[in-house]
Amino acid sequence: MSDDNAIISIRNLDKTYASGFTALKNINLDIRRGELFALLGPNGAGKTTLIGSVCGIVTPSGGRIHANGYDVVRDYRAARSLIGLVPQELATDGFESVWATVSFSRGLFGKPPNPAYIEQLLRDLSLWDKRHARIMELSGGMKRRVLIAKALSHEPEILFLDEPTAGVDVDLRRGMWEMVHGLRKRGVTIILTTHYIEEAEDMADRIGVINRGELVLVEDKHTLMAKLGKKQLTVYLQDPLNGLPAALARDGLEVSNDGYALTWTYDLHREHNDIAGLMRDLQAQGIHFRDLHTQQSSLEEIFVELVKERS
Amino acid sequence: MNIHAIRAIYRFEMARTGRTLLQSIASPVISTSLYFVVFGAAIGSRMVEIDGISYGAFIVPGLVMLSLLTESISNASFGIYMPKYSGTIYELLSAPVSVGEVILGYVGAAASKSIILGTLILATARLFVDYQIEHPLWMLGFLVLTSVTFSLFGFIIGVWADGFEKLQIVPMMVVTPLTFLGGSFYSIDMLPPVWQTVTLFNPVVYLISGFRWSFYGVSDVPVGISAAMTALFMLACVAVIHRMFATGYKLRT
Predict the structure, then answer these.
(1) Is it the case that residue B45 has pLDDT exceeding 80?
(2) Please, which of A43, A104, A108, A122 could form a disulfide with B95 given CB 3.0 to 4.6 Å?
(3) Is residue B252 included in any domain, yes or no?
(4) What gap in Å lies between CA B26 and CA B56, rounded to an integer?
Protein backbone atom coordinates (compact mmCIF):
# COMPACT_ATOMS: atom_id res chain seq x y z
CA MET A 1 0.00 0.00 0.00
CA SER A 2 1.65 3.19 -1.04
CA ASP A 3 0.97 6.59 0.44
CA ASP A 4 0.10 9.14 -2.28
CA ASN A 5 1.81 11.83 -0.24
CA ALA A 6 5.00 9.81 0.16
CA ILE A 7 8.28 11.54 -0.70
CA ILE A 8 10.23 8.37 0.07
CA SER A 9 8.82 4.99 -0.73
CA ILE A 10 10.63 1.83 0.33
CA ARG A 11 9.39 -1.55 -0.86
CA ASN A 12 10.58 -5.03 0.15
CA LEU A 13 14.02 -3.75 1.07
CA ASP A 14 16.50 -6.41 2.13
CA LYS A 15 20.15 -6.13 2.99
CA THR A 16 22.46 -9.01 3.77
CA TYR A 17 26.13 -8.13 4.11
CA ALA A 18 28.93 -10.23 2.62
CA SER A 19 29.57 -11.60 6.12
CA GLY A 20 26.10 -13.17 5.98
CA PHE A 21 24.64 -10.75 8.52
CA THR A 22 21.12 -9.71 7.59
CA ALA A 23 20.74 -6.06 8.48
CA LEU A 24 17.34 -5.38 6.88
CA LYS A 25 14.46 -7.75 6.33
CA ASN A 26 11.65 -6.88 3.94
CA ILE A 27 11.29 -3.22 4.91
CA ASN A 28 8.21 -1.42 3.59
CA LEU A 29 7.96 2.22 4.54
CA ASP A 30 6.54 5.48 3.23
CA ILE A 31 7.86 8.80 4.48
CA ARG A 32 5.33 11.55 3.97
CA ARG A 33 6.23 14.85 2.40
CA GLY A 34 7.04 17.50 4.99
CA GLU A 35 6.87 15.27 8.04
CA LEU A 36 9.42 14.65 10.73
CA PHE A 37 9.81 10.91 10.96
CA ALA A 38 11.74 9.46 13.89
CA LEU A 39 13.31 6.08 13.35
CA LEU A 40 14.04 4.43 16.65
CA GLY A 41 15.86 1.24 17.39
CA PRO A 42 18.59 -0.19 19.56
CA ASN A 43 22.23 -0.27 18.40
CA GLY A 44 22.68 -2.55 15.40
CA ALA A 45 18.96 -2.57 14.62
CA GLY A 46 19.50 -1.47 11.00
CA LYS A 47 18.79 2.27 11.19
CA THR A 48 22.03 3.39 9.54
CA THR A 49 21.84 0.62 6.93
CA LEU A 50 18.33 1.76 6.04
CA ILE A 51 19.47 5.37 5.67
CA GLY A 52 22.55 4.25 3.73
CA SER A 53 20.35 2.30 1.33
CA VAL A 54 18.25 5.36 0.54
CA CYS A 55 21.27 7.63 0.15
CA GLY A 56 23.36 5.32 -2.04
CA ILE A 57 26.03 4.34 0.47
CA VAL A 58 24.75 0.81 0.96
CA THR A 59 23.86 -1.48 -1.95
CA PRO A 60 20.56 -3.20 -1.09
CA SER A 61 20.30 -6.96 -1.62
CA GLY A 62 16.70 -6.60 -2.78
CA GLY A 63 13.74 -4.25 -3.02
CA ARG A 64 13.13 -0.79 -4.46
CA ILE A 65 13.45 2.71 -3.09
CA HIS A 66 11.97 5.85 -4.65
CA ALA A 67 12.64 9.44 -3.65
CA ASN A 68 10.00 11.83 -4.96
CA GLY A 69 9.15 9.20 -7.57
CA TYR A 70 12.76 8.68 -8.69
CA ASP A 71 14.30 5.25 -8.35
CA VAL A 72 17.40 5.80 -6.18
CA VAL A 73 19.42 3.37 -8.32
CA ARG A 74 18.19 4.02 -11.85
CA ASP A 75 17.50 7.76 -11.47
CA TYR A 76 20.22 8.32 -8.90
CA ARG A 77 21.03 11.83 -10.07
CA ALA A 78 17.52 13.17 -9.59
CA ALA A 79 16.98 11.21 -6.39
CA ARG A 80 20.26 12.11 -4.68
CA SER A 81 19.94 15.79 -5.59
CA LEU A 82 16.93 15.92 -3.28
CA ILE A 83 18.63 14.34 -0.30
CA GLY A 84 20.96 15.70 2.36
CA LEU A 85 22.62 13.39 4.87
CA VAL A 86 24.15 14.13 8.24
CA PRO A 87 26.04 10.95 9.10
CA GLN A 88 26.43 9.49 12.54
CA GLU A 89 30.22 9.58 12.48
CA LEU A 90 32.04 12.91 12.67
CA ALA A 91 33.65 12.40 9.28
CA THR A 92 35.28 15.65 8.18
CA ASP A 93 38.21 16.92 6.13
CA GLY A 94 40.28 18.15 9.04
CA PHE A 95 42.64 20.30 6.99
CA GLU A 96 39.89 22.12 5.09
CA SER A 97 38.28 25.37 6.20
CA VAL A 98 34.60 25.43 7.11
CA TRP A 99 33.80 27.66 4.14
CA ALA A 100 35.70 25.47 1.66
CA THR A 101 34.16 22.21 2.79
CA VAL A 102 30.60 23.53 2.75
CA SER A 103 31.13 25.10 -0.68
CA PHE A 104 32.61 21.81 -1.88
CA SER A 105 29.48 19.94 -0.81
CA ARG A 106 27.24 22.36 -2.67
CA GLY A 107 29.24 21.86 -5.86
CA LEU A 108 29.36 18.09 -5.43
CA PHE A 109 25.57 18.01 -5.37
CA GLY A 110 25.41 19.93 -8.64
CA LYS A 111 24.55 23.41 -7.44
CA PRO A 112 26.28 26.54 -8.72
CA PRO A 113 28.20 28.60 -6.14
CA ASN A 114 25.99 30.81 -3.97
CA PRO A 115 28.10 32.62 -1.37
CA ALA A 116 25.06 34.46 0.04
CA TYR A 117 23.27 31.19 0.78
CA ILE A 118 26.37 29.60 2.34
CA GLU A 119 26.87 32.70 4.46
CA GLN A 120 23.29 32.54 5.73
CA LEU A 121 23.63 28.84 6.42
CA LEU A 122 26.81 29.33 8.43
CA ARG A 123 25.23 32.21 10.33
CA ASP A 124 22.15 30.10 11.14
CA LEU A 125 24.42 27.37 12.49
CA SER A 126 26.61 29.85 14.42
CA LEU A 127 29.58 28.92 12.27
CA TRP A 128 30.12 32.22 10.50
CA ASP A 129 32.89 33.32 12.87
CA LYS A 130 34.66 30.05 12.22
CA ARG A 131 34.34 30.09 8.43
CA HIS A 132 38.11 30.38 7.90
CA ALA A 133 39.03 27.94 10.67
CA ARG A 134 40.31 24.51 9.80
CA ILE A 135 37.83 21.84 10.79
CA MET A 136 40.39 20.01 12.90
CA GLU A 137 40.51 23.07 15.18
CA LEU A 138 36.78 22.90 15.95
CA SER A 139 35.04 21.26 18.89
CA GLY A 140 32.95 18.11 18.41
CA GLY A 141 29.72 20.10 18.52
CA MET A 142 30.96 22.52 15.90
CA LYS A 143 32.09 19.68 13.66
CA ARG A 144 28.58 18.25 13.94
CA ARG A 145 27.20 21.61 12.82
CA VAL A 146 29.63 21.65 9.90
CA LEU A 147 28.20 18.29 8.83
CA ILE A 148 24.70 19.75 9.03
CA ALA A 149 25.83 22.75 6.96
CA LYS A 150 27.31 20.40 4.36
CA ALA A 151 24.09 18.40 4.22
CA LEU A 152 22.04 21.57 3.76
CA SER A 153 24.45 23.25 1.35
CA HIS A 154 22.55 22.09 -1.74
CA GLU A 155 19.11 23.01 -0.35
CA PRO A 156 17.75 19.44 -0.11
CA GLU A 157 14.06 18.59 0.16
CA ILE A 158 14.78 15.55 2.29
CA LEU A 159 17.18 15.57 5.22
CA PHE A 160 18.47 12.50 7.01
CA LEU A 161 19.80 13.16 10.48
CA ASP A 162 21.53 10.07 11.80
CA GLU A 163 22.05 10.58 15.54
CA PRO A 164 22.68 14.32 15.07
CA THR A 165 22.79 15.16 18.76
CA ALA A 166 25.08 12.34 19.91
CA GLY A 167 27.77 13.90 22.09
CA VAL A 168 26.37 17.40 21.71
CA ASP A 169 25.79 19.60 24.75
CA VAL A 170 22.34 20.71 25.84
CA ASP A 171 22.54 24.27 24.47
CA LEU A 172 23.70 23.08 21.11
CA ARG A 173 21.01 20.43 20.97
CA ARG A 174 18.41 23.06 21.63
CA GLY A 175 19.88 25.21 18.87
CA MET A 176 19.84 22.29 16.47
CA TRP A 177 16.22 21.53 17.16
CA GLU A 178 15.30 25.15 16.56
CA MET A 179 16.97 24.85 13.21
CA VAL A 180 15.11 21.59 12.50
CA HIS A 181 11.83 23.35 13.31
CA GLY A 182 12.80 26.08 10.85
CA LEU A 183 13.52 23.52 8.15
CA ARG A 184 10.19 21.84 8.69
CA LYS A 185 8.43 25.15 8.30
CA ARG A 186 10.13 25.46 4.92
CA GLY A 187 8.70 22.08 3.96
CA VAL A 188 11.84 19.96 4.31
CA THR A 189 11.07 16.33 5.10
CA ILE A 190 13.22 15.13 7.99
CA ILE A 191 14.09 11.58 8.92
CA LEU A 192 15.75 11.38 12.29
CA THR A 193 17.39 8.64 14.25
CA THR A 194 18.22 9.39 17.83
CA HIS A 195 19.03 7.77 21.12
CA TYR A 196 17.37 10.64 22.95
CA ILE A 197 13.84 9.39 22.67
CA GLU A 198 12.45 12.46 24.39
CA GLU A 199 13.60 14.37 21.28
CA ALA A 200 11.47 12.13 19.10
CA GLU A 201 8.63 12.49 21.56
CA ASP A 202 8.88 16.27 21.38
CA MET A 203 9.32 16.69 17.67
CA ALA A 204 8.27 13.75 15.54
CA ASP A 205 5.02 13.44 13.65
CA ARG A 206 5.40 9.72 13.21
CA ILE A 207 7.54 7.08 14.82
CA GLY A 208 9.06 3.99 13.25
CA VAL A 209 10.61 1.32 15.42
CA ILE A 210 13.18 -0.99 13.89
CA ASN A 211 14.64 -3.98 15.66
CA ARG A 212 16.95 -6.70 14.31
CA GLY A 213 16.41 -5.46 10.77
CA GLU A 214 12.62 -5.56 10.93
CA LEU A 215 10.32 -2.60 11.01
CA VAL A 216 8.33 -3.40 14.12
CA LEU A 217 5.82 -0.60 13.75
CA VAL A 218 5.14 2.73 12.10
CA GLU A 219 2.61 4.90 13.83
CA ASP A 220 1.50 8.45 14.34
CA LYS A 221 3.21 9.57 17.54
CA HIS A 222 0.01 10.49 19.40
CA THR A 223 -1.77 7.34 18.27
CA LEU A 224 1.19 5.25 19.35
CA MET A 225 1.30 6.80 22.76
CA ALA A 226 -2.41 6.44 23.21
CA LYS A 227 -2.43 2.89 21.94
CA LEU A 228 0.61 1.49 23.67
CA GLY A 229 1.06 3.97 26.49
CA LYS A 230 0.07 3.12 30.03
CA LYS A 231 -1.05 5.32 32.84
CA GLN A 232 -0.29 4.68 36.46
CA LEU A 233 -2.27 5.91 39.46
CA THR A 234 -0.54 5.74 42.83
CA VAL A 235 -2.59 6.18 45.97
CA TYR A 236 -0.54 6.95 49.10
CA LEU A 237 -2.27 5.57 52.19
CA GLN A 238 -2.39 6.89 55.71
CA ASP A 239 -2.12 3.42 57.25
CA PRO A 240 -0.37 0.40 55.76
CA LEU A 241 -2.25 -2.56 54.29
CA ASN A 242 -1.17 -6.13 54.93
CA GLY A 243 -2.43 -7.22 51.58
CA LEU A 244 -4.90 -6.26 48.90
CA PRO A 245 -8.45 -6.52 50.27
CA ALA A 246 -10.64 -8.74 48.06
CA ALA A 247 -13.17 -5.91 47.65
CA LEU A 248 -10.55 -3.77 45.92
CA ALA A 249 -9.17 -6.48 43.62
CA ARG A 250 -9.00 -5.52 39.95
CA ASP A 251 -6.56 -5.98 37.04
CA GLY A 252 -3.31 -4.06 37.45
CA LEU A 253 -3.84 -3.03 41.06
CA GLU A 254 -1.00 -3.84 43.43
CA VAL A 255 -0.04 -2.96 46.95
CA SER A 256 3.51 -1.83 47.66
CA ASN A 257 5.84 -3.89 49.83
CA ASP A 258 5.56 -1.52 52.77
CA GLY A 259 1.79 -1.44 52.36
CA TYR A 260 1.67 2.35 52.17
CA ALA A 261 0.85 2.65 48.48
CA LEU A 262 -1.57 1.20 45.99
CA THR A 263 -0.46 1.30 42.35
CA TRP A 264 -2.95 0.82 39.57
CA THR A 265 -1.58 0.46 36.03
CA TYR A 266 -4.11 0.75 33.23
CA ASP A 267 -4.10 1.18 29.46
CA LEU A 268 -4.59 4.68 28.16
CA HIS A 269 -6.95 3.58 25.44
CA ARG A 270 -9.31 1.71 27.77
CA GLU A 271 -12.41 3.78 28.05
CA HIS A 272 -13.62 2.61 31.45
CA ASN A 273 -10.79 2.99 33.86
CA ASP A 274 -13.28 3.59 36.65
CA ILE A 275 -11.00 5.55 38.93
CA ALA A 276 -14.10 6.85 40.67
CA GLY A 277 -15.12 3.24 41.41
CA LEU A 278 -11.75 2.56 43.04
CA MET A 279 -12.09 5.68 45.16
CA ARG A 280 -15.58 4.60 46.28
CA ASP A 281 -14.31 1.12 47.16
CA LEU A 282 -11.45 2.58 49.19
CA GLN A 283 -13.91 4.72 51.11
CA ALA A 284 -16.25 1.79 51.67
CA GLN A 285 -13.34 -0.24 53.11
CA GLY A 286 -12.42 2.64 55.40
CA ILE A 287 -9.04 3.05 53.77
CA HIS A 288 -7.89 6.65 53.94
CA PHE A 289 -5.36 8.13 51.59
CA ARG A 290 -3.17 11.19 51.89
CA ASP A 291 -2.13 11.79 48.30
CA LEU A 292 -2.64 10.75 44.70
CA HIS A 293 -0.19 10.70 41.83
CA THR A 294 -0.70 9.85 38.17
CA GLN A 295 2.03 9.13 35.64
CA GLN A 296 1.85 8.45 31.91
CA SER A 297 4.42 6.24 30.18
CA SER A 298 6.91 8.06 27.98
CA LEU A 299 7.78 7.17 24.43
CA GLU A 300 11.01 5.77 25.82
CA GLU A 301 9.15 3.31 28.03
CA ILE A 302 6.92 2.31 25.12
CA PHE A 303 9.98 1.85 22.94
CA VAL A 304 11.83 -0.26 25.52
CA GLU A 305 8.72 -2.37 26.01
CA LEU A 306 8.30 -2.88 22.26
CA VAL A 307 11.89 -3.86 21.67
CA LYS A 308 11.86 -6.22 24.66
CA GLU A 309 8.64 -7.80 23.44
CA ARG A 310 10.00 -8.51 19.93
CA SER A 311 13.43 -9.71 21.00
CA MET B 1 26.76 16.17 -16.74
CA ASN B 2 27.38 17.47 -13.22
CA ILE B 3 29.96 20.12 -14.13
CA HIS B 4 29.75 21.72 -10.67
CA ALA B 5 30.73 18.42 -9.06
CA ILE B 6 33.71 17.92 -11.37
CA ARG B 7 34.86 21.45 -10.63
CA ALA B 8 34.33 20.99 -6.89
CA ILE B 9 36.38 17.77 -6.76
CA TYR B 10 39.09 19.19 -9.01
CA ARG B 11 39.44 22.37 -6.97
CA PHE B 12 39.38 20.43 -3.71
CA GLU B 13 42.21 18.19 -4.89
CA MET B 14 44.25 21.04 -6.32
CA ALA B 15 43.81 22.94 -3.05
CA ARG B 16 45.30 19.93 -1.25
CA THR B 17 48.36 20.23 -3.49
CA GLY B 18 48.54 23.92 -2.64
CA ARG B 19 48.64 23.05 1.05
CA THR B 20 51.36 20.45 0.55
CA LEU B 21 53.54 22.19 -2.05
CA LEU B 22 56.75 21.03 -0.40
CA GLN B 23 55.72 17.40 -0.49
CA SER B 24 53.86 17.34 -3.81
CA ILE B 25 56.06 19.52 -5.98
CA ALA B 26 59.30 20.60 -4.32
CA SER B 27 60.30 17.16 -3.03
CA PRO B 28 60.13 15.27 -6.37
CA VAL B 29 61.79 18.18 -8.20
CA ILE B 30 64.68 18.19 -5.69
CA SER B 31 65.15 14.40 -5.74
CA THR B 32 65.12 14.33 -9.56
CA SER B 33 67.63 17.19 -9.61
CA LEU B 34 69.91 15.05 -7.46
CA TYR B 35 69.73 12.31 -10.10
CA PHE B 36 70.77 14.85 -12.72
CA VAL B 37 73.66 16.06 -10.58
CA VAL B 38 74.90 12.52 -9.84
CA PHE B 39 74.17 10.65 -13.08
CA GLY B 40 74.16 13.58 -15.47
CA ALA B 41 76.89 15.95 -14.37
CA ALA B 42 79.17 13.79 -12.17
CA ILE B 43 79.08 10.21 -13.54
CA GLY B 44 77.59 11.10 -16.93
CA SER B 45 80.70 13.00 -18.05
CA ARG B 46 82.73 9.76 -17.74
CA MET B 47 80.22 7.62 -19.67
CA VAL B 48 80.11 6.99 -23.40
CA GLU B 49 77.29 8.34 -25.53
CA ILE B 50 74.23 6.12 -26.09
CA ASP B 51 72.71 6.22 -29.60
CA GLY B 52 74.76 9.36 -30.18
CA ILE B 53 73.26 11.14 -27.15
CA SER B 54 75.29 12.23 -24.13
CA TYR B 55 74.45 10.13 -21.05
CA GLY B 56 73.19 13.13 -19.11
CA ALA B 57 70.74 14.01 -21.87
CA PHE B 58 69.84 10.34 -22.44
CA ILE B 59 68.49 9.89 -18.91
CA VAL B 60 66.32 13.06 -18.94
CA PRO B 61 63.17 11.41 -20.42
CA GLY B 62 63.56 8.35 -18.17
CA LEU B 63 63.91 10.44 -15.03
CA VAL B 64 60.93 12.62 -15.93
CA MET B 65 58.96 9.44 -16.53
CA LEU B 66 60.09 7.99 -13.18
CA SER B 67 58.72 11.01 -11.32
CA LEU B 68 55.63 11.17 -13.49
CA LEU B 69 54.68 7.56 -12.79
CA THR B 70 55.31 7.58 -9.05
CA GLU B 71 53.72 10.99 -8.46
CA SER B 72 50.67 10.27 -10.64
CA ILE B 73 50.03 7.08 -8.71
CA SER B 74 50.73 8.69 -5.38
CA ASN B 75 48.52 11.77 -5.99
CA ALA B 76 45.55 9.86 -7.36
CA SER B 77 45.68 7.02 -4.86
CA PHE B 78 45.94 9.42 -1.94
CA GLY B 79 43.13 11.57 -3.35
CA ILE B 80 40.55 8.77 -3.18
CA TYR B 81 42.06 6.87 -0.25
CA MET B 82 41.88 9.80 2.18
CA PRO B 83 38.06 10.17 2.00
CA LYS B 84 37.84 6.43 2.60
CA TYR B 85 40.20 6.69 5.55
CA SER B 86 38.53 9.75 7.11
CA GLY B 87 35.00 8.55 6.36
CA THR B 88 34.09 11.52 4.16
CA ILE B 89 33.60 9.11 1.24
CA TYR B 90 29.94 8.95 2.32
CA GLU B 91 29.44 12.31 0.68
CA LEU B 92 30.85 11.24 -2.68
CA LEU B 93 28.81 8.02 -2.63
CA SER B 94 25.59 9.86 -1.81
CA ALA B 95 26.17 12.66 -4.35
CA PRO B 96 24.53 12.82 -7.79
CA VAL B 97 27.78 12.10 -9.62
CA SER B 98 28.62 9.48 -12.24
CA VAL B 99 31.80 7.41 -12.39
CA GLY B 100 32.98 9.56 -15.30
CA GLU B 101 32.57 12.73 -13.29
CA VAL B 102 34.40 11.25 -10.32
CA ILE B 103 37.26 10.23 -12.63
CA LEU B 104 37.38 13.65 -14.29
CA GLY B 105 37.56 15.35 -10.90
CA TYR B 106 40.05 13.15 -9.06
CA VAL B 107 42.13 11.82 -11.94
CA GLY B 108 42.02 15.17 -13.74
CA ALA B 109 43.50 16.87 -10.68
CA ALA B 110 46.14 14.18 -10.12
CA ALA B 111 47.14 14.27 -13.79
CA SER B 112 47.29 18.10 -13.76
CA LYS B 113 49.69 17.98 -10.83
CA SER B 114 51.86 15.43 -12.64
CA ILE B 115 51.94 17.52 -15.81
CA ILE B 116 52.98 20.59 -13.79
CA LEU B 117 55.60 18.47 -12.03
CA GLY B 118 56.92 16.98 -15.28
CA THR B 119 57.26 20.45 -16.78
CA LEU B 120 59.09 21.71 -13.69
CA ILE B 121 61.47 18.76 -13.76
CA LEU B 122 62.21 19.37 -17.44
CA ALA B 123 62.90 23.02 -16.70
CA THR B 124 65.14 22.07 -13.76
CA ALA B 125 67.00 19.49 -15.88
CA ARG B 126 67.95 22.30 -18.24
CA LEU B 127 70.09 23.75 -15.46
CA PHE B 128 72.25 20.60 -15.39
CA VAL B 129 71.98 18.99 -18.83
CA ASP B 130 71.72 20.23 -22.39
CA TYR B 131 68.92 18.41 -24.19
CA GLN B 132 66.64 19.06 -27.14
CA ILE B 133 63.04 18.10 -27.92
CA GLU B 134 62.68 16.96 -31.54
CA HIS B 135 58.93 16.31 -31.41
CA PRO B 136 57.46 18.72 -28.83
CA LEU B 137 53.83 17.82 -29.58
CA TRP B 138 54.53 14.11 -29.17
CA MET B 139 56.45 14.91 -25.99
CA LEU B 140 53.44 16.78 -24.64
CA GLY B 141 51.16 13.97 -25.80
CA PHE B 142 53.19 11.33 -23.95
CA LEU B 143 53.41 13.58 -20.88
CA VAL B 144 49.62 13.97 -20.75
CA LEU B 145 48.83 10.37 -21.70
CA THR B 146 51.21 8.94 -19.12
CA SER B 147 50.00 11.31 -16.38
CA VAL B 148 46.36 10.44 -17.05
CA THR B 149 47.00 6.70 -17.38
CA PHE B 150 49.01 6.37 -14.20
CA SER B 151 46.67 8.66 -12.29
CA LEU B 152 43.91 6.24 -13.29
CA PHE B 153 46.09 3.38 -12.08
CA GLY B 154 46.73 5.24 -8.84
CA PHE B 155 43.01 5.80 -8.40
CA ILE B 156 42.48 2.03 -8.64
CA ILE B 157 45.15 1.46 -5.99
CA GLY B 158 43.50 4.09 -3.76
CA VAL B 159 40.14 2.31 -4.00
CA TRP B 160 41.75 -1.10 -3.47
CA ALA B 161 43.96 -0.13 -0.53
CA ASP B 162 42.55 -0.55 2.94
CA GLY B 163 45.65 0.69 4.74
CA PHE B 164 48.60 3.02 4.21
CA GLU B 165 50.90 0.06 3.65
CA LYS B 166 48.89 -1.15 0.66
CA LEU B 167 48.84 2.40 -0.64
CA GLN B 168 52.64 2.42 -0.76
CA ILE B 169 53.31 -1.16 -1.73
CA VAL B 170 52.44 -1.01 -5.46
CA PRO B 171 54.41 2.19 -6.22
CA MET B 172 57.39 0.99 -4.17
CA MET B 173 57.46 -2.71 -4.93
CA VAL B 174 56.15 -2.73 -8.51
CA VAL B 175 56.28 0.63 -10.27
CA THR B 176 59.69 1.87 -9.12
CA PRO B 177 61.50 -1.41 -10.00
CA LEU B 178 59.69 -1.55 -13.36
CA THR B 179 60.75 2.02 -14.09
CA PHE B 180 64.38 1.41 -13.12
CA LEU B 181 64.39 -1.77 -15.23
CA GLY B 182 62.41 -0.11 -18.02
CA GLY B 183 65.32 1.74 -19.56
CA SER B 184 65.41 4.94 -17.52
CA PHE B 185 69.18 4.76 -17.27
CA TYR B 186 70.08 2.60 -20.28
CA SER B 187 68.96 1.52 -23.73
CA ILE B 188 67.56 -2.00 -23.79
CA ASP B 189 69.99 -2.72 -26.66
CA MET B 190 72.68 -2.75 -23.97
CA LEU B 191 71.11 -5.84 -22.35
CA PRO B 192 71.88 -9.49 -23.29
CA PRO B 193 69.38 -10.80 -25.91
CA VAL B 194 67.39 -12.89 -23.41
CA TRP B 195 66.84 -9.92 -21.10
CA GLN B 196 65.90 -7.75 -24.06
CA THR B 197 62.98 -10.13 -24.69
CA VAL B 198 62.04 -10.27 -21.01
CA THR B 199 62.13 -6.48 -20.81
CA LEU B 200 59.49 -6.20 -23.52
CA PHE B 201 56.96 -7.54 -20.98
CA ASN B 202 57.62 -4.47 -18.85
CA PRO B 203 54.97 -1.87 -19.81
CA VAL B 204 57.17 0.99 -18.62
CA VAL B 205 59.67 0.23 -21.42
CA TYR B 206 57.08 1.44 -23.94
CA LEU B 207 56.46 4.67 -22.02
CA ILE B 208 60.12 5.58 -21.63
CA SER B 209 60.96 4.53 -25.15
CA GLY B 210 58.16 6.62 -26.66
CA PHE B 211 58.96 9.60 -24.47
CA ARG B 212 62.67 9.40 -25.33
CA TRP B 213 61.81 9.22 -29.03
CA SER B 214 59.93 12.52 -28.73
CA PHE B 215 63.17 14.07 -27.43
CA TYR B 216 65.87 12.54 -29.63
CA GLY B 217 64.10 10.59 -32.38
CA VAL B 218 65.58 7.27 -31.15
CA SER B 219 63.63 4.54 -29.42
CA ASP B 220 63.88 0.95 -28.21
CA VAL B 221 60.44 0.07 -29.62
CA PRO B 222 58.47 1.77 -32.44
CA VAL B 223 56.72 4.93 -31.20
CA GLY B 224 53.34 3.80 -32.51
CA ILE B 225 53.50 0.70 -30.34
CA SER B 226 54.50 2.83 -27.33
CA ALA B 227 51.50 5.11 -27.79
CA ALA B 228 49.14 2.19 -28.44
CA MET B 229 50.30 0.26 -25.36
CA THR B 230 49.88 3.30 -23.14
CA ALA B 231 46.42 4.01 -24.54
CA LEU B 232 45.48 0.36 -24.05
CA PHE B 233 46.58 0.46 -20.42
CA MET B 234 44.58 3.66 -19.94
CA LEU B 235 41.42 2.06 -21.33
CA ALA B 236 41.96 -0.99 -19.11
CA CYS B 237 42.21 1.31 -16.06
CA VAL B 238 38.99 3.14 -17.03
CA ALA B 239 37.22 -0.22 -17.38
CA VAL B 240 38.45 -1.37 -13.96
CA ILE B 241 37.34 1.87 -12.27
CA HIS B 242 33.95 1.67 -13.95
CA ARG B 243 33.57 -1.87 -12.65
CA MET B 244 34.68 -0.84 -9.17
CA PHE B 245 31.98 1.82 -8.96
CA ALA B 246 29.33 -0.35 -10.57
CA THR B 247 29.87 -3.12 -8.03
CA GLY B 248 30.77 -0.77 -5.17
CA TYR B 249 34.04 -2.68 -4.68
CA LYS B 250 35.61 -1.49 -1.40
CA LEU B 251 33.44 1.62 -1.60
CA ARG B 252 29.86 0.65 -0.84
CA THR B 253 28.93 -1.94 1.74
Answers:
(1) no
(2) A108
(3) no
(4) 22
Q: Do A91 and B87 touch (CB under 8 A)?
A: yes
**Chain A neighbors of B98, CB-CB under 8 A:** 77
Among B2, B19, B91, select the one facing A105 at the smallest CB separation. B91
Residue B90, min C-alpha distance to chain A (Å): 6
Q: Work out the angle between the directed axes of helices B136-160 and B223-247 (0-180°, nearest 10).
A: 30
Q: Does domain A6-219 have CATH number 3.40.50.300?
A: yes
In this predicted structure, the answer to whether residue A32 has a pLDDT above a threshold of 80 is yes
DSSP for residue A113: P
List chain A domain ranges: 6-219, 229-310
Fill in the amino acid letter for A123. Answer: R
| Stretch among A20-29, A95-104, A301-310 having the lowest mean pLDDT | A301-310
* Residue ranges in chain A assigned as alpha helix (H): 47-55, 76-81, 98-108, 115-124, 140-152, 170-185, 197-203, 221-228, 275-284, 299-310
Per CATH, which fold does A229-310 belong to?
A: Alpha-Beta Plaits (3.30.70)
Residue B13 makes CB contacts below 8 A (sequence gap 6+) with B75, B79, B105, B106, B109, B110
Residues of A in contact with B9 (CB under 8 A): 108
User: How far is B24 from B26, CA to CA, in rounded Å?
Assistant: 6
**Measured between CA atoms, how close is B155 to chain A, in angstroms?**
19
Q: Do A104 and B8 touch (CB under 8 A)?
A: yes
Query: B248 to chain A: nearest residue by CA?
Result: A59
